[in-house]
Amino acid sequence: MKKQASCNTSPQCRKRILAIKDTMEILSGKWKFHILGTLLLNDKMRFMDLLREVDGIAAKMLSKELHDMEMNQLITRRVLDTKPVTVEYELTEYGRSVEPIINEIASWGMVYRKGIVA
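Above: the chain sequence. Below: its structure as tokens.
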């Protein structure tokens, strides 16, 4: 007989775990934090500018990640009526609300790296 979960059964705990799962699903992946961090520092950016700034990402992967972030309302995509067509990406309020998380991750990473490398 399988034991039942006992730690995560309260409504408050379930709600918290669901929120963590949602957050991890939306922000998961190798590139999302890098893209969000780049947009936080640069306001609006064009696709090719992002491709140059996010070191190591392929154009196809950048396109996929931007599409995912647009679907999750973290960024907006604006097509400008220029020749050739220009596409700009900008953070939404939800996207900007990730800034404290990115700052904390960066701070933790610096402390961790200093401790491991030293």
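Residues 80 and 86 are 5 Å apart (CA to CA).
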